Each structure stands twice: as C-alpha cells, then as structure tokens.
C-alpha cells in the first residue's frame, strides 16, 4: 500500500517536471545558453520523465521506471552540484528519496 501511494506521488512529481520541461520555459533555455548546452536535451528529458511517470503507475514496468528516473535524478543532482545550483539539487534529492521509498516499501510483502 505504501509503495503504491509513493508511486503515485512520484508519478505526479515526475509528470509535472516532464510537462514543465516540454513547455521549455525561457528561464530553462536561458540557463542552458549560459552553460553553453544545446536546447534539445530539455525536450528529451521532459518526454522521458513523462514516460517514466506513467511507467511508475504500472507494477510491471515500475522497476524499469525506477531505474530510469533514478539515473535522471542522479544526473540532475550531479549537474546541480557541479554548477552550484541549490534548488535543482534539493529537487533531485527529493525525487531520489521518493524513488528509494518505492523501492524499499515495494519489496515488502504482506504476511
């Protein structure tokens, strides 16, 4: 039960992030331009986050989604630390905590 609740919460968080990235707000594009990064990864990451959020809701695809979204969140955390951006780092840590909770509670079986 707890894993299901966490999965829905994480799906909402990642879906919101995916939709935000797919909308490609000017602030995100400006930050990428300052870092000399291309804009296309924003759209790819937005689509992958949205797909991962949907995959979290199905128990058959949840393991794959956990791995995929954990890699994305770890990359976001690493980039945020390297570029000394606190807010994205905190968001990535919260995402990783949600995914860890799903992993921990999802392994428990009712006896």
Largest sheet: none
Tally of distinct domains? 1
Estimated share of beta-strand residues: under 5%
Shape: globular
How many β strands by DSSP?
0
Order of SSEs: HHHHH
How many separate helices?
5
User: Termini, distance in Å?
Assistant: 13 Å
- Backbone structural class: mainly alpha
**Poorly predicted spans:** none
Mean of all residue-level pLDDT scores? 89
User: How large, in whole angstroms, is the Cα Rg?
Assistant: 15 Å
Helix content, binned percent? over 70%
Describe this structure in words.
The protein has one domain. With 111 residues, the protein is mainly α. The protein has five helices and no strands. The protein is globular. The longest helix is centred in the first third of the chain and has 21 residues, at 2-22. Helices cover 80% and strands 0% of the residues. It has helices at 2-22, 26-34, 40-56, 62-82, 86-106.
Index terms:
5 helices, globular
What order do the helices and strands come in, and which of them pair?
Elements: H1 2-22, H2 26-34, H3 40-56, H4 62-82, H5 86-106
Could you provide a short overview of the structure?
By secondary structure, this protein is mainly alpha-helical.
């Amino acid at each position: 039960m707890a894993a299901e609740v966490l999965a829905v919460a994480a799906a909402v968080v990642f879906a919101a992030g995916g939709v935000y990235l797919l909308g490609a707000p000017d602030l995100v594009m400006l930050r990428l331009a300052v870092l000399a990064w291309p804009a296309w990864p924003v759209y790819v990451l937005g689509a992958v986050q949205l797909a991962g959020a949907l995959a979290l809701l199905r128990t058959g695809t949840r393991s794959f989604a956990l791995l995929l979204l954990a890699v994305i969140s770890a990359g976001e955390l690493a980039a945020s630390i390297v570029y000394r951006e606190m807010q994205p780092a905190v968001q990535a840590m919260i995402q990783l905590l949600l995914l860890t909770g799903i992993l921990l509670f999802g392994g428990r079986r009712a006896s």
